[in-house]
Design goal:
25% helix
């Protein structure tokens, strides 16, 4: 089974537009083939981009924003040796790890990350769930996973806004 779904270019470009204006240092902790990194590089904004070759190489540095499409499935997230890392929901682990290194996260996630767990929703709400942007089913052809983009802002006190992005 294919667990490797790269961010479509149009979605990557859109996600870059969501980065707050004051953000300059950007972490992409799980770059895959680099579609988000490519979108950052072609942006007219002067980003300083850190794209990890291996998530486990993440240091304690603080970044203005984290931009990511983390692995949705435990079989697509590997440890240092290249074996499955053993996390049932790698998205939660990666988000939690990144929350300690930024005040802003923009992440492409499966809707099930939000709808199937009170604990995961609380994790996002406690951090600051600013926006949830629904993506169309065509985002990942051949996949049955419904996806969304979440914008997290540490300490965000307002109500969460829901939007829809289509092309």
């Amino acid at each position: 089974m294919n667990y490797n779904f790269q961010t479509p270019e149009i979605v990557a470009d859109y996600m870059v537009t969501l980065i707050p204006k004051k953000c300059r240092t950007i972490l992409e902790p799980t770059p895959g083939k680099g579609n988000l990194v490519n979108a950052l590089e072609k942006s007219d904004r002067p980003f300083e981009i850190t794209a990890l070759a291996n998530f486990w190489d993440l240091d304690d540095e603080f970044y203005d924003c984290v931009l990511m499409n983390p692995p949705f499935n435990k079989d697509a997230f590997f440890d240092h040796s290249g074996k499955p890392a053993g996390y049932n929901m790698p998205c939660s682990f990666i988000i939690d790890t990144c929350m300690k290194r930024t005040d802003n996260i923009i992440a492409l996630l499966p809707w099930s990350h939000i709808t199937n767990s009170v604990l995961r929703v609380k994790q996002l709400m406690n951090y600051g769930l600013q926006t949830v942007i629904t993506l169309p089913r065509k985002t990942f052809p051949g996949s049955r996973v419904q996806t969304c983009i979440v914008q997290l802002k540490k300490g965000y006190p307002e109500k969460t806004e829901f939007k829809y992005f289509d092309w």
